């Protein structure tokens, strides 16, 4: 059909909203409540455009044949501006915030405050995710994402009119409801009303303490995302710069969590083989993702027996730092502070689990590390590339792909095949479990037996896969869309192609690795030889494995 | 409000759905909830929408301040309403019928349930059910999309249209929603040859000695209404519920949608709140603003954030702290909320401000001057 867009006649396909049409034609329209992959809510009313003289929300309106659309006259701009004024009576944007809403202030030409601020809420302070409803503009994206993409439904709207606010159910705190701490709400908050519970202050005081030996360990997916915070193109690998930035922040050692991932693989692959051989509980489900563990404990605790007992990679490495490394380096473990740099807010909660002991002291998200680097006035982009510290710093490509959905599965199968048959798996890259499909599956033959496996990313997909779990022997669960590269602690992104680009960077790092199988890592071999013996040994069980609990939702 | 005693349904079934639609269209039955949409057109759209299942809903969530005609009908002629509901179900081909009853009318429910059961038993329609759903006290749930959300167990939020409930309502299926009076009228229009499309139930209240529900034809003179309602003093203003706006009383005026529209007001369900000379219209506007500030569902920005700002400005004016600029801001806000809100509540919630400032500038002047003394 034909329409007129700002006076120009254009041909448009059916079924498209005015917002899609505007953006396809290079016309910017501000949005706040719009989420590219969810149904339009038409709540915020800042995407207004004029259709045949009447104001309509472009996110939810499809054009009529011959309609005339105006996106930029004073009528439109004034209405957008007034709705922004009503939502954010006192706009303020500090430069370091880089909030989505700041760009919209400029776009609509916000002026000084005309209306008084009327919000008086107590902040909701959890161990992982914190919320400040005084900043909230009720766009509802957190509610939509928590419910529809993550399948968690921990938060929703309560009360009416100007008292309407987002809250966990029964007006409880996030910390006392069935929230899986995935932090996807943070990524979708345009005003910074939801954020991680920051550990920056604690880390700074540890770094300032001359008696403490502060060690950083860096998760695989940080290197594919941290550069975005410093204006580098999405998908830039910044492994070396991350290491040198951490050294300049004052960390005594910088280790690669990939090594923890390699050890996780040794343990997890062995556990899978043991279950297969001894008629153990199947399917076995991976436990690298603390968001999934919380979902299991809240909603599916009948699956506790299916869960691998392996700790997550950074918890494993944390324990090894405080035992193996401490002994090698001759440092009192009590004087070591382990700081994990994670793409994840749920890891903050995980580090407080009593059953895991004191392997990890603090967790910084990718965003917090970015903030720390900026606080220290380090010019990230011009840093030299440095190597991880060697004692625990050699890792494989298998460890690095942990950051992408399907990666744990792929790495585990590479090693399981070798451990079970003594031969390497013929192919290294498993296309069937790569990519952004919500649930992916495949099969391999192991000693004549067919092993079926599947992986899910995003909470709602995990719930779907739980329903079909009995079709498989081995399942990987990742709570965040895309896996850890899309984690709730990662840089906030607006381009929907971001996850794909970050994932490609990780697969590039895998291909570029000399070692691509966890069981080939010489440090792994050395640690087993010198301390752990073999996978699933008594010592390994003590340091590297854990158990789970049933949690009440109410 | 004559009773139809099952004869309307019987007649409809002998005529067939098409003939009923044609008859209602010819007789000119319009919705009585306020929007005056042609009933036959609504039913036909629902009947023609492809679906495996359809629903009909009686909207008995009468929440507009000053409106009480549906309560009157439910107390005195509920069986005709239920018959109209079944008639609608028959015409569109629905099995599940709902009556969404205002929370505050819960005391009517036991008797209504008995009457619904009784009519249903006598109707002998296979597999048809009627469920009474009690509202929980939210004004917004009288709005069709919010009402459907509430029936489905969701938060009573208004939803963006399209899709219209008529073709995509409860559980994504075609759903007819009609007001109590509309359904009663549908039964009457089918049965009685002398049924008059021009008659309306008026809810009259305010500074009068005889408030109540009256039946008048459209075009009735204001003086006729005053004769029966009997104001004690000279009347100054009238408000059409909360949403319709406030206009001066003119005894010679004939009450028609067009005449009311001329004064920038909306007739709605013909609930007229009459005010005499002792009233300052700003006070009324303030009360109405308070109402909206409590009853907005909170979903869309202009209504959620704008209603409270309108209230605060009116409060300021009433306290004698207002300025001419505040009145301009009030007008700007009211017009903006109406223009950019999602549903009918937001799109009408500024009427009282706009019309009162236009028709009664003296009342605002009184408060502006009061502050300067």
Account of the 3D structure:
The complex is a heterodimer of chains A (554) and B (373). Chain A has helices at residues 18-24, 74-87, 100-108, 141-149, 184-187, 200-208, 239-249, 257-277, 290-299, 313-329, 346-350, 366-375, 397-400, 407-421, 459-467, 498-512, 522-532, 538-544, and strands at 2-5, 8-11, 48-51, 54-57, 68-70, 124-125, 129-131, 155-158, 165-168, 194-196, 213-218, 253-256, 284-285, 336-342, 362-365, 439-446, 449-457, 474-478. In chain A, the strands form 5 sheets. Chain A has a 5-stranded mixed β-sheet with strand order 2-1-5-3-4, with helices on both faces. In chain A, 34% of the residues lie in helices and 14% in strands. Chain A has 18 helices and 18 strands. By secondary structure, chain A is an alpha/beta fold. Chain A has 3 domains: 2-108, Ubiquitin-like (UB roll) (Roll), CATH 3.10.20.740; 124-196, Alpha-Beta Plaits, CATH 3.30.70.20; 200-544, Rossmann fold (3-Layer(aba) Sandwich), CATH 3.40.50. With 373 residues, chain B is of the alpha/beta class. Chain B has 3 domains: 7-191, Rossmann fold (3-Layer(aba) Sandwich); 201-276, Ubiquitin-like (UB roll); 281-372, de novo design (two linked rop proteins) (Up-down Bundle). Helix content of chain B is 48%, strand content 14%. Chain B has a 5-stranded mixed β-sheet with strand order 6-5-9-7-8. The longest helix of chain B has 24 residues, at 69-92. The termini of chain B are far apart. The model of chain B has no long low-confidence stretch (mean pLDDT 95).
Which key phrases capture this entry?
heterodimer; A: 554 residues; alpha/beta; Ubiquitin-like (UB roll); Alpha-Beta Plaits; Rossmann fold; 3 domains; five-stranded mixed β-sheet; four-stranded parallel β-sheet; B: 373 residues; de novo design (two linked rop proteins); 15 helices; 9 strands
